[in-house]
Amino acid sequence: MKKPMKIDIQPGIEDRPSSANQGRLGVRVRLARQTLGMTLKALATEADCSESLLSKIENGKASPSLPMLHRLAEVLRTNIGWMFEEADGEEGIVFRAGTRPLIGLDPLRRGEGISLERIIPYSPGHLLQCNIHHIEPGGESAGAIQHAGEEVGYVLAGSIELMVGEKTFKLSIGDSFVFNSELPHWYRNVGTTRASIFWVNTPATF
Predict the structure, then answer these.
(1) C-alpha 166: how far from chain center
(2) Phi/psi at 123 (nearest 5 deg)?
(3) Which of 65, 116, 174, 199 pairs as cysteine with 153 (C-beta 3.0–4.6 A)?
(4) Which tens digits make up the pLDDT trace of 111-136?
């Protein structure tokens, strides 16, 4: 039988050494915020806290006071219990169809017309990050980005244009790719229907 969950939050304490609970809370707050398509600044404003403190909370470097935790849960349309659950999906292993979070990316920072369907439960314990990128017609990532790691993808639907370094590729259903994330990369939907890409990268970047 699953043991009752113990939530360790001390009212008024907003900055203390990182703990397992803080790390779990941070990734859940970020997931809920991204699922609603909210920026860090928007959530901070709605929850009446500073953007810098909220950033610390999401990164597991600070813990909110109990009143702030209640405000965050209300704004994020969730509950405190979910924020501290130890397992995602079925014991952190299975994500059933129709239950996976769909995250709308911030157009100013991540791109236009793009949403991410989580394949791997959002947890700091995973080395891999895996999503299905859904790109609406005309949608594209917000400029070339580069970071440490490696990425691999498989086109499930539609047609996309992928730029890696100085090379540009047009990909259709069934095509796959892999590249070093340190190379500048960018993509867009060049078709007339929604494109979907099964995308895996390590380490997790968002």
Answers:
(1) 28
(2) -150, 140
(3) 199
(4) 578 888 888 876 656 778 899 999 99
Q: Tens digits of per-residue pLDDT, 131-170?
A: 999 999 999 987 788 888 899 999 999 999 999 999 999 9
Determine the average pLDDT of the residues in 76-85: 76
Domain range spanning residue 194?
102-202
Instruction: Compute the distance between CA of residue 5 and CA of residue 3 in angstroms, rounded to an integer.
Output: 6
Query: Element (H or E) spanning 197, and its range?
Result: strand 195-202
**How does pLDDT run across 14-35, given as a tens digit for each residue?**
333 345 667 778 888 988 888 8
Look-up: residue for tokens 């990316």? 105
Angle at 36 between CA 25 and CA 50, to 5 degrees: 55
Whether the CB-CB separation of 152 and 200 falls below 8 Å is answered with yes
Helix/strand/coil for 8: coil
Q: Give me the helices (H) in the chain, please.
A: 20-35, 40-46, 51-58, 66-75, 80-84
**Running DSSP on this structure, what letter comes out for residue 90?**
B
Structural domains in the chain (count): 2
Answer yes or no: is 9 within a domain.
no
Which of 29, 54, 84 is a domain's end point? 84
Distance between CA atoms of 59 and 133, rounded to whole angstroms? Answer: 24
Longest dimension (CA), the chain: 55
108 and 191 belong to one structural domain: yes
Strands (E), 58-194: 102-104, 111-118, 129-141, 150-157, 160-164, 167-171, 176-180, 185-189
